Structures
1.
Amino acid sequence: MKKIAITGATGLMGRSLMTTLSSYFHTLGTGFSRAAGDIHKLDLNNESAITAFLDTHQPDALIHAAAERKPDVCEQSPEQTLALNVQATQFLAQQCKLRNIRLIFISTDYVFDGTQAPYIENSATNPLNFYGQSKQQAEQAVLANSELHSVIRVPVLYGDVTYLAESAVTVIAEQISETQPSKHDHWAVRYPTHVEDIALTLKDLLKQPDNLGGIFHISNHQAMSKYDMACIIADHRNYPRSLLTPLPTPSQTAQRPYNCALKDTRLTKLGISHQRDFSTAIKYILSSQ
Ligand SMILES: NC(=O)c1ccc[n+]([C@@H]2O[C@H](COP(=O)([O-])OP(=O)(O)OC[C@H]3O[C@@H](n4cnc5c(N)ncnc54)[C@H](OP(=O)(O)O)[C@@H]3O)[C@@H](O)[C@H]2O)c1
């Protein structure tokens, strides 16, 4: 059975990767501040700890999901962001190549500027904010190290959260109220994607007979703004939509792209597709909160 190591296994996507992939592969998760139980504590800023981990466990593939992924935090802490998002990824790419381990690096739709959607895998990148720039640099380091390494670009994520503010989607449930008005971005076009669909897609890619390196796009196909998501969540909670105000212009600190629709042309060719209806999935998630 293939051995798959996963960084960021304590995070939103990593937890889903652990749950889904464990049914098909021998999985080995690493985390940092929340590492506990079966999850190994591995500080990705510590290079000797990384090489010791790889030598001890010798995985066949490493899914690198750990990152600083909040654009506003990245702008405020550029050195920390570069260390984790770029330097650690570059080091992992080199060390995995030396050991013949396939690196699967999780990247973002924010490597694009959002002006020319939809984007295919080899469309030119042009990130607007520091987070996107850090992921663009990391992508280049991964792809330069080995043609067997992969870059997986994903859009805004949601799934089983430990607290509502853990994802930019579920936090909307905290922002709306039965009695108080709230404002929501109705400018940027998003494609909220369930982390389990990412995990199922990666399972299918890992089961392909050939190692498929290079760039892959994974994205749900339903387009919506944060305001649209707020309307759906308000309906599920029986809150009046009249309290929700759509904001026609961007309001966040770090600049965000308008529409980064990711076209999954390589997955389509392989016949791999895992999609789910946003309204049904978010209803289920919120019912367990
Ligand atoms: N969330 C989104 O909407 C979104 C959208 C597009 C792309 N992505 C990308 O998808 C990937 C997964 O995102 P996510 O939302 O699951 O992230 P997340 O929930 O914020 O989790 C981040 C993970 O990184 C780990 N980490 C932080 N600092 C570390 C360090 N120094 N050493 C080792 N591990 C460290 C954290 O471990 P501890 O918590 O244990 O410290 C945690 O497991 C990221 O690469 C992100 O850029 C996310």
Note: Residues 3-160+193-221+261-276 form a domain with the Rossmann fold fold (CATH 3.40.50.720).
2.
Amino acid sequence: MKLPNGPQYPALVQKLQWILSPMSFMEACAQRYGDIFTMQLNEPMVFVSNPQALQQILTSDTKEFTAPSDRNTAFEPMLGKNSLITISGEVHRRQRQLLMPPLHGDRMRTYGQVINDVTEQVISQWQVGKSFCVHSAMQLITMRVIMQAVFGLYEGLRAQELEEILAAMLNETSPWRVIQLYFPALQKDFGPKSSWGKFIRRRERVHQLLNAEIQERRDQPDSSRTDILSLLMAARDEAGRPMTDAELCDELMTLLVAGHETTATALTWALYWIHKFPSVREKLVQELDSLGDHPDCNSIFKAPYLNAVYCETLRIYPVAMLTFPRVVKTPVSLCGYKLEPNTVVMGSIYLTHQREDLYPEPQQFKPERFLERQFSPYEFLPFGGGVRRCIGMAFAQFEMKVVLAKILTSQELALVDDRDMPPKRRGLVTAPARPIQMVVKSQREAKSRTLETSTK
Ligand code: HEM
């Protein structure tokens, strides 16, 4: 079998390049080899950024391709073996069915008030003339929102400790930690002060706190609760079995981790772009002001320019650079290459979003592109697609829009430093290369806007 072309130098060098500067490595490969090429990482991996090929992969990812869990091992130390991300096949399908309803449809309405209140809490700490770190503020918002969605109203010492330890675990994003994730042999516990030792002790404590919460709910059942944990505990599979404690614990960890850092990073980028270009901010504020003093979540969700800014933010530097790996199941022809079973294929979200033929001047932030034309789910795919498409997509989209609306209608902010901001790998996400600081110029109005949570 002849794989698509790609760099010929040693696999170890390619792997280090991938870990340290993934975007420029992908760009260099695309420039030289086109929209399908092979990188040598743990094994040969075919990177794809051709929309027709992506459609083929993502629409037949149970027939010609599979979305196996054994290629997602980098997530296992953090999320466990029972996470939606680390399971596959029939078990994965059933688990997705359990997790989808609380993250979709009418349920969004109930989260509107939570998102609004949490954002209000966080921005009430900002002071005129003072600067703050945007990423830390966004992390606090998204962490509290996902905690409340998962556990319901959640206060007290256990909630506080959980919030603190998870934040500490997720803020450990040094290149060394990423190298450890890619090289399991380096995952060694050399005591509580060592990098991996710290990680496993924190993880142990998080598991204790989650299990204490599960146990308390088993001892004192309350059928009126509608939070995600209660729904998961009440769920039964086709044989009438409930989820085990180990399954519950890993799924909670998955939602808390996946539902928090990705959205916080996307919000940080959005605030950067909006304030980098005063005309973008002006247009957005005008649109949001026109929705009235108490806009309902539906109007915010549908506001066209806000939607365009949200899409362009996730296009230019997609928080997730890649889809999860797919593996060829039966011999297929992809972009003219005959791929044999077991070939690993990655959808490069980043390179697809940088295609000049789809997005002229792809390095420019231009929300108008999303007003001028519609892109297919294989041209614009910040949440991946197919059987592993992000289950938090609706939740993240809703949360980002409500948080941005709340901030922009109540605060006048400015970037402390408006130099161009390149992207950089931060753990497993694409984040700004330097911390972004903003300053509060003024509060836009004394009566802070509230969100009307009924939908019309
Ligand atoms: C801006 C925010 C987010 C982005 C950009 C994002 C992106 C992605 C991407 C690209 C995938 C892989 C899809 C594929 O391989 O086809 C994914 C999967 C996943 N995401 Fe998200 N995500 C975000 C927010 C969230 C939130 C809020 C949650 C949970 C509340 C979440 C939970 C998950 C889970 C559990 C999976 C695995 C799905 C599976 O394997 O079936 N994500 N996400």
Note: The two ends are 57 Å apart (CA to CA).
